[in-house]
Design brief:
Elements (H helix, E strand, L loop, with lengths): L11 H23 L18 H8 L4 H15 L1 H8 L2 H7 L2 E2 L6 E2 L2 H8 L4 H9 L6 H4 L3 E4 L10 E4 L1 H9 L13 E4 L12 H15 L1 H7 L10 E6 L6 H12 L3 E4 L1 H4 L6 H13 L5 E4 L3 H4 L9 H19 L3 E6 L7 H6 L2 E4 L5 H11 L5 E2 L5 H7 L4 H18 L3 E2 L1 H13 L1
Length: about 450
């Protein structure tokens, strides 16, 4: 039975060949059973080709033919529902292939037993091999690609074989669905309308950020062309530290914008739990949901989660916190995406995190030359500079962060609009800054 897919897709031909291969395996398995042939070998899988997410996933994770068959079997109801319907409408065939009817849609779904029947038949050793495809350390489980939806009273392999909705989108359309804030993904999309030229940093910080961008951009070049792959860790981990308002969040946003990656600010209040083991589960779900998506996870005020371990853990709370830090160290090191930890005080972080992060970038209060650039670039034309106002004297007398300068100018602008007085002097800036500092 030749299958076709009607969609624009860089893996179009490859997915069509995969479906045709699955159809051939289903047909051969049915014939084998009818002829009582237990040793009929599985048809060889098509050659991997295409530049889409599906082809990349198969090749990157070195999936065997049997593993590929399980993957395309789970994907088939979303590509060609009628492929399994052919075998589901007949009671004998449905029982043979262990298909189940969807409770929500009029389609037949494969089970773990369907995969076993196609791959192993009556071969016990092959059957046990298929069981291992659903172990926690297998790529299907580790990356949250496939699950077995077990029903009450059924065995684990009788359960529906389901593919994660994110991977359905990725394999079919070469793009991941943007996740909404939820218990499974407690993070908000972080975006900005600003550009790199709007960000004023000291040269050392700028150089460190460029090094970070280079390391991410040229990872594949170093891994493949320079032969350093086995020595390099996947993903990237960085610490941004320094006073509030110095550009840490904006830098994270601009990194994502320039790289074409979504940046998500993690809601630590939804991650941290007072119940033992729940924080670890929340982190595991977040990282699993983010695997292979190219996201940048931004942990603002990250010391709330990644704080130092208790040196002398004498009570259960300290012991649990130390266990949590140990888990976080391993989870972050194994994560293949980009993690940015932001903190006002680097000393609050556990020292072990610093050793596992490739970059540690300091964001300081602007020096006079950067402060002068900020005041000039942010000052609106509608505000008139009085004779006493001198930006050069201002930045020497008192350094302000970029966020503070924006607040001062915003307050002055609002007062000017209300009073219809648009000339500003040095005394006005001192008055407004003093008021803001008291808050």
């Amino acid at each position: 039975m030749q299958q076709t897919i009607t969609s624009t897709h860089t893996d179009l031909d490859f997915l069509t060949e995969e479906l045709n291969w699955l159809s051939k395996c289903l047909s051969d398995s049915g014939l084998s059973h009818a002829a009582e042939l237990s040793n009929l070998s599985m048809t060889e899988a098509p050659e991997i080709r295409g530049q889409g997410v599906y082809a990349h996933f198969v090749s990157e994770h070195l999936l065997s033919d049997a593993e590929r068959l399980v993957l395309i079997l789970a994907l088939a109801p979303h590509l060609q529902p009628k492929l399994l319907e052919t075998y589901g409408v007949d009671a004998v065939q449905r029982q043979l292939f262990k298909l189940v009817q969807s409770a929500t849609k009029n389609v037949f779904l494969p089970t773990g037993e369907t995969a076993i029947h196609l791959i192993a038949g009556s071969d016990l050793s092959k059957r046990l091999e298929v069981y291992r495809y659903f172990d926690a350390d297998h790529v299907f489980s580790r990356k949250g690609v496939l699950t077995l939806q077990k029903n009450e009273g059924s065995s684990s392999m009788d359960a529906e074989l389901l593919i994660n909705a994110d991977y359905v989108d990725a394999f079919l359309f070469n793009s991941y669905r943007k996740p909404k804030y939820s218990k499974e993904f407690p993070a908000h999309l972080l975006q900005t309308q600003m550009e790199w030229e709007d960000l004023v940093l000291n040269p050392i910080t700028q150089e460190k950020i460029q090094e970070m961008k280079d390391a991410i951009h040229f990872y594949q070049t170093l891994a493949q062309e320079w032969g350093l792959g086995k020595h390099l860790k996947k993903g990237y981990r960085a610490v941004f530290y320094g006073p509030s308002g110095t550009g840490k969040s904006l830098t994270a946003s601009l990194l994502g914008k320039s790289m074409g990656r979504d940046v998500y600010r993690v809601d630590l209040s939804a991650i941290i739990s007072k119940y033992i083991g729940e924080t670890e589960e929340n982190i595991a779900r977040l990282l699993r949901k983010s695997e292979d998506k190219g996201y940048i996870l931004f942990f603002d005020e990250g010391d709330a989660l990644f704080g130092s371990r208790a040196k002398d853990a004498q009570n259960s709370n300290d012991q649990h916190h130390n266990q949590l830090i140990g888990y976080l160290l391993q989870a972050i090191e194994n994560f293949d995406g980009i993690i940015i930890l932001a903190t006002n005080l680097k000393a609050n972080l556990d020292e072990a995190f610093s050793r596992r992060f490739q970059s540690s970038i300091y964001f300081g209060v602007p020096k006079p030359e950067q402060g002068l650039q900020l005041w000039k670039s942010l000052w609106p034309e509608k505000l008139k500079m009085g004779p006493t106002l001198n930006f050069q004297s201002l930045v020497v007398a008192k350094p302000f962060t970029a966020a503070m300068i924006v607040q001062i100018i915003q307050t002055l602008a609002l007062q000017a609009i209300r009073k219809q007085e648009f000339t500003v002097g040095m005394a006005d800036i001192k008055r407004v800054s003093d008021e803001l500092m008291k808050k």
